[in-house]
Amino acid sequence: MTPTLTAFLNGVRIASGDVAQVAAVLRARTEDLEASPILLSDVDGRTVDIDLRPPAEIPAVEKTPAARPGRGRPRLGVVPREVTLLPRHWDWLAAQPGGASAALRRLVEEARKTHADTDRLRTQREAAYRAMSALAGDAAGFEAAARALFAGDREGLDAILATWPADVAAYILARLDT
User: Fold this and answer.
1) pTM
2) What is the rounded (10 degree) CA torsion for 42, 48, 53, 54?
3) What are the residue boundaries of the structural domains of the chain, listed by start?
4) Are 49 and 34 in contact (CB under 8 A)?
5) Distance (Å, rounded) from C-alpha 93 to C-alpha 106?
6) CA-based diameter of the chain, in Å?
7) pLDDT digits (tens, 9 = 90+) for 130-148
């Protein structure tokens, strides 16, 4: 799936689509844009910068040589990273069947399954908050909206968002309903 962006100008959605589509719309409107649009990633609500020069003017990116495979099992997608634990944790992990790495993988998978709903809700709220901060950080009721968002008070959030521009409110609520 290609990531999509949405561009806003003064609280109005002016473009939405993949990077090339949004850039084309913004390039075509350069003259009539009195302010810089705010671009947001539809995946996580983060602000995004894109190069609005015509594709022919954007320099080609030089490819760097592929890094030499490191330790571990890169063909299986195993990525080595550092983990800092107390000695008692290392002792417990070493006593587990398959060793420390296998035990950590089992614990992570179990936690992912157990907390999937909570993690999804947290991710949605964070995306909505990032979008809300970028689009309406100075709007009336922003702090109350943020409190309602993280408290799970959908009615309170809806009431505040009803006073904001419709495109902004719809975009924020869409981050919660994904």
Assistant:
1) 0.77
2) -20
3) 5-54, 117-176
4) no
5) 11
6) 67
7) 999 999 999 999 999 999 9
